[in-house]
Amino acid sequence: WDCCKPSCAWPGKGHVDRPMLACSTRTGRITGDGNMRSVCDGGTSASCPSHKPLVVNSHLTLGFAAAAVSGNHGLLGDQNCAQCFQLRFVDKMHDGGVWGGSHRHLVNKSMIVQVLNIGYDVTGAHSFDIQIPGAGQGIFGSGCRGQYRGFSTGDFDCDNRYGGCHRRDGCARLPKQLQSGCRWRYDWFH
């Protein structure tokens, strides 16, 4: 969760009537201009706090994801913007691999994700990066600090850019609007 304007919030992405939503760093409200520059590039357009995961019940959750499109798994790029996918968590290993299978607490749960970002820079056999506040800012460390004044860069991921907060209590370092999304990682997605 780097707070950058979602790549799918630019005009012309996906087969939609209008771009995905982004929020103003000045007002916190949804922007009406898809051409506003991203907070990660010195602009005022950012991810909306409402892009955090939301629990429906003990077996279903909703959220947003970046589609990793630099692999061989059927995702194509910008045309995947705004598409929804159901992720089913199973305990099966990937074919021919030494990895895969969900944690036992996730098996038989599902998540509906809407593609909000396209990860052309992400390689590997996985398909989605779930957008979770507090789970690491990755290469863009200036966006959240630009969106939420009064916080340090490390507050948004417990000083761990790749992986984020290791414990639930680290979520208290994030702005109030993002804390429930961070706690989701430990309460539902553990």
Automatic annotation (TrEMBL):
Xref: SUPFAM superfamilies: Barwin-like endoglucanases
EC number: 3.2.1.4
InterPro entries noted in UniProt: GH45_Enzymes (IPR052288), Glyco_hydro_45 (IPR000334), RlpA-like_sf (IPR036908)
Pfam families noted in UniProt: Glyco_hydro_45
Catalytic activities: Endohydrolysis of (1->4)-beta-D-glucosidic linkages in cellulose, lichenin and cereal beta-D-glucans
Top-level EC class: hydrolase
Location of the Glycosyl hydrolases family 45 active site domain: 1-189
Keywords: Carbohydrate metabolism, Cellulose degradation, Glycosidase, Hydrolase, Polysaccharide degradation
One GO term of the biological process aspect: cellulose catabolic process
One Gene Ontology term of the molecular function aspect: cellulase activity
UniProt record similarity statement: Belongs to the glycosyl hydrolase 45 (cellulase K) family.
Name under which the protein is recorded: cellulase
Organism expressing this protein natively: Alexandrium catenella (Red tide dinoflagellate)
